[in-house]
Amino acid sequence: MIRYLAAASIAALIIAGCFGFSRHIHRSFVERVRQSMRAAKADGTLPKELEGVDIEAENLEGLEVRVSESEERWLTLAWAIEGRWFLWVPVVIAAAFGIAHLMGRPAHQP
C-alpha cells in the first residue's frame, strides 16, 4: 500500500513539474518580448504598428515575433505539454503504478 502512495506522489510531482516547466517557458518568453519592446521603445526603434500597444498588457496575443530555432523548440515543447496533457499524464500515472506493482512482486523461486 505504501508503494502505491509513493507512486501517486511521484507521479503528481512529475506532472506538476512538467506543468510548472511549461508555465516557466511561456512566462520567460513573454518577459523577453516585453524587455525587447521596452528597449526598442526607449531607443525609438519600435515599429510604428507597435507604438500604440501597451507593453505591460497582460495579453500580448496577436503580435508576430520572430524567434530563434532554439526558442521555437522550447515553446513547442511547452505548448505540447499543455496541449497534449491528456496523452502523457495517464502514461506517467500508469508507469508510476506499474513500477510500484512490479517492485512489490516477490522474486520468482525455482
Structure description:
- The chain has 110 residues and is mainly α.
- It has helices spanning 2-43, 69-83, 85-104.
- Helix 1 (2-43) runs antiparallel to helix 3.
- The longest helix has 42 residues, at 2-43.
- The radius of gyration is 22 Å and the shape is rod-shaped.
- It starts with a helix and ends in a 6-residue tail after the last helix.
Topology (SSEs and partners):
Layout: H1 2-43, H2 69-83, H3 85-104
Mean pLDDT across the residues is 89
What gross morphology would you assign?
A: rod-shaped
Beta strand %:
under 5%
Reported for the largest beta sheet, the result is: none
List keywords for this structure.
rod-shaped, 70% helix, mainly alpha, 110 residues
Concise structural overview:
This protein is mainly alpha-helical and 110 residues long. The protein has helices at residues 2-43, 69-83, 85-104.
